[in-house]
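Troubleshooting: if your tokenizer reports a length mismatch, compare against these two reference records.
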Amino acid sequence: MNDWRTIAVKPSDTMQKVMQVIDTGRMQIALVVDDNDHLIGTVTDGDIRRAILKGRGLDTPVQEYMNKNPTTGLIDEEPSSWQRTMLRHTLRHLPLLDAGGCIAKLTFLEPPREPVRDNPVVLMAGGLGTRLRPLTEKKPKPLLTIGNKPILETIIENFVSQGFHKFYVCINYKGDMIREHFKDGSQWDASITYIEENKRLGTAGALSLIKDKIDLPFFVMNGDLLTKVDFVRLSEFHKQQQNTITMCVREYRYQIPYGVVSLDRHRITGISEKPIQYYQVNAGIYMLDHEIINDIPHNQFYDMTTLIEVILAKNITVGSFPLREYWMDVGRVEDFEQAHSEYFDQFEQ
């Protein structure tokens, strides 16, 4: 295994230096890291060519043209998960990160295998889509078209492409339109069962309606998310870590626009100019062991966060699965417009 540090560069390094690093490293990639080895981005020969075509000079800092959202793996995963990720994203190499987002290793592509998988997928598609009005006045949010197809269709196709075929779609607001569009799912090589919510049941309450239908660990995902998440990796990680619930989390970065002052009473002990704060936030994608449905009140409003709080109070394991792939919550009009502009680059390559 080659040492990843031989291909590490800083955000301020010039294009000329990055080209030298890529040429010397002979791995066709450079890793952009900060002083704490936190991965900030990646650069390939293709990124450099595109930057040059746009008129960027050899003195351009790498942070201006690097891939800021590179596909990565986790060092704690099985090597088979790394291989699947590289195959799905047509990559020759994959940076492996620790839980803090720091580089641990760089791995390379090997031959693949792809079995059919029976883990059920529960998609929450019953929301009112209030924040997307007037777009949702005539159709439910999961049927809004982004790119060339409804959001929910992209979600189902993504799961099917990874071997999953058994779906439960929870519907309420304008649910008949969803049922009419997807029917039994056979057009997508899937089997779809519809769960009718006669009242709003939150993000977990509808799971009580399928208590006797599921006997394997299963996915739960909001029906308004566009993502390139590798669900097989999530499934394998959930099993390997022996979690009862695994929540997908994303890193959210917030830069404070002022100099932050550290105080000891009235004495200033330090100052940090416009520091960046890192948070892990809920991505709306989960994997659960099927027994957990017994803890959900039947046909009552119940959110997934409430379920997790109850499980944590019992000292039962709830794990986190960090996401670094493309992810977009299409919850607001501005998100809808952004997803439109990004769709073909992400899903039709």
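Reference record two:
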Amino acid sequence: MLVRRFYDDRLAQASYLIACQDSHQAIVIDPARDITPYLAAAKSENVRIAYVTETHIHADFVSGSRELAQRTGAELLLSGAGEGSYGHRIASQARMLHDGDRISLGGVRIDVWHTPGHTPEHIAFLVTDVTVSEEPVALVSGDFLFVGDVGRPDLLEKAAGVANTATIGARALWQSLQRLGSLPEHLQIWPGHGAGSSCGKALGALPTSTLGYERRTNWALGVHDENTFVRSVLADQPDPPPYFGTMKRVNRDGPEIVGELAALPELTADQLALELPRSVVIDLRPAKAYAETHIPGTLNLAFNKAFTKWAGWLVSNDQDVFLIAENPAMAEEARRALLAIGLDRVRGMTTTAAAAALMRGGTALASRRMSMKHVAELAAAGRHIIDVRDDHEWADGHVPGAEHHSLGRVQESLRNLDRATPVAVHCQGGGRSAIAASVLERMGFKDIVDLSDGWSAFEGNR
């Protein structure tokens, strides 16, 4: 048996290619929208992708299942367990899977388990290498069981707007977890997400685990009362990004086929200037470089691990997007990251060097970057102190007199504040406040201070 794991750091999302080396057949589970890595892996390993499937209708990225199946001629397999608006709407294009179904790849056997809870249609895949043993070797658990956590059952309600489903999902998840009791300690757990995903609240950073280890360390497997579990699993879940609801609909109805991407058009500075009033122009440089000189009205999303997350919060899928990047290769990588979450309208790019003609330092945010040690005097001078951290961070402690507007919601929550109001923004360590400063500048605020060392510096000096 051959196993290849693929991992997107920006989405904290894992997918798997499992193959029988004797039959040269492979299945890909939970593919991302960019199918290039799976095609390359199948070629290098001399296997044919015979099946493509997914554990559930994803909320955090656009599924590549339909595209990969079409490109390779593989059979598309989808969960048939959902009902009504919960289930897939492309059943005519796929073979629908149910609990107890079996997929054969020569010497590799894959059994389907219906594991509702995170979503009603969720399935997991029990993998057995029958050439070695009749004992299963792994569970591809999707968003059912993570390292250290379980999939949150409230997304259908919070992200997709299906009312009164969170508690129902939590109870279904409890019942699904009870099925694990029949499985051996040595069973490997291959989850769909790692630390940083919004599909749970306490995901571990280990890429894989074993069921025996999870029984000893995973909080959810240590709870032995259903009502206690329901209360615990629904408590303190992070606020889902607004694009999650869009992703649920896109993946339910079948994502558009991307195909081969043409190179992004490269705009001159004058052409980019024309797009500024009607589009979102994202500057991919680090916050420090952006603060020193930038084009007013652009959005600063440094191209790092958090890029996709904040793009999903701050950019709508009905907006045209242009990128300012060091080079075309970086712009192309950023474009694919945006495509992964359904931001398909990336229309062009400009290099940093070409955009320099539009950049100016006169209104540079660098001149308004200050330490948190000045927060008291800024507040005393009448400046609004805006804390852009998450709810749980605010609840753990905050600057007296500050206002809480989490970064993902700041465009909405501050839309009625007078643009002449002097503001100072901070987060935990400076990353989010830099983004917030660019957001506020785009909104028309004229006097912005970025308290760039954040709450951790304030707390450390109290």
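Descriptive notes for reference record two:
- The first strand starts at residue 2 and ends at 8.
- DSSP finds 17 helices and 21 strands in the chain.
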